[in-house]
Amino acid sequence: MTPHIAALSLLTLTPLAACGPVSVQQAEAQCFESARLAQHPRGSVGVGLGTGGPVTNFEIAVSSDYLMGRDPSAVYDACVYQKSGQPPRQPLYSRTDWKG
Known about the structure:
By secondary structure, the chain is an alpha+beta fold. Helix content is 49%, strand content 18%. The protein has one domain (21-94).
C-alpha cells in the first residue's frame, strides 16, 4: 500500500470510528444532561459592569424532549442504548446524582 493510499484510508475511516458505539459508562455520562433537560429547562442570567458599561448575559436551554413531555428516565434509557447498544447499568431515578 502506498503512503498516499494509507493516508487516504485513515482520513476516510477516522470519522467513521467516531460513529461507533461507546462504552456504557461514557453513554451514561453523555446522556445524563439530556435527561436533565427533559425534566425542565436550564438557564442562567449574569449581570456585571465592564469597562464599556453594564454587561448582561442570558442563556436558556430547552430540549424538544421537555416540550413534548417525555419522561427523563425514558430519554436517558433510549439515549444510552442508542450510543452504546446496551441498557444503562442502573435506572436514572436510582442514581445518587439525580435530583428529580
